[in-house]
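Practice problem: H-NS histone family protein
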Amino acid sequence: MAIDIKSLNHNQLNDLIQKAQARQHELQKERTTKVREKVHALLKAEGVTFEEIFGAGGAVRGGKRRGLGSVAPKYRNPADPEQTWSGRGKRPRWFNDALKAGKKEKDLAI
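Answer key — structure tokens:
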């Protein structure tokens, strides 16, 4: 079933591309379904659940890890001890103001 793509006009070529991408998507879904069925069959045969193997939370999504909690503060505002900063992310205004006033990072460290 060779297709001579050189003989296709612009619209025919776009139509072929769309059909090929749709078929590619269908094949990926079929493959995923088959793998899922194999995994469920294996879990059932072994007498274990998905949660026992992978935990209740499932996979980590979006690259973010769950349950790690917050980071301990590294710096404290001498003018207002309730204001702290972990040293991650954008510097808070009070931190920059203290540096401009002549303080050093080690002076603000907890």
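Discussion: The first helix runs from residue 10 to 46. Students who identified this feature from the tokens alone can consider the problem solved.
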